[in-house]
Amino acid sequence: MAESEGGRPAPFAPVVIDPAAAPEEPETFEVFRIGDRSFRAPVRTTARMALRAMVAGETTGVSGVGHYLVRDALGDEAMRALAECPGVTSDQIREIIGNLGRLYLGQVEGEVLGNSDGDSPR
Length: 122
Hints:
With 122 residues, the chain is mainly alpha-helical. It is 50% helix and 11% strand.
């Protein structure tokens, strides 16, 4: 068993992470389409997405975590496509961001609160 710095037994063994391991490839779904271009996002938050959101939350506060998760899920290309599309409406933007925000925040809430499904609807 590992020891703490004080020489006492550590409360648990360290987690060993392989830095060369391939990142998890999440299942995705279509979020929106502009013309014939489809833009997708993960069905579930990945561990890396959740950790990046936690780090972002330290500076943005809780209210910014949902927006960070949405941006991280969609990626820069999709966000640029939305921002540059002359035909996109405010209602469409609210729907995209709202749907993804509820999906991901429900999952993170489920993980934090220990809900088994992590998909609590709002």
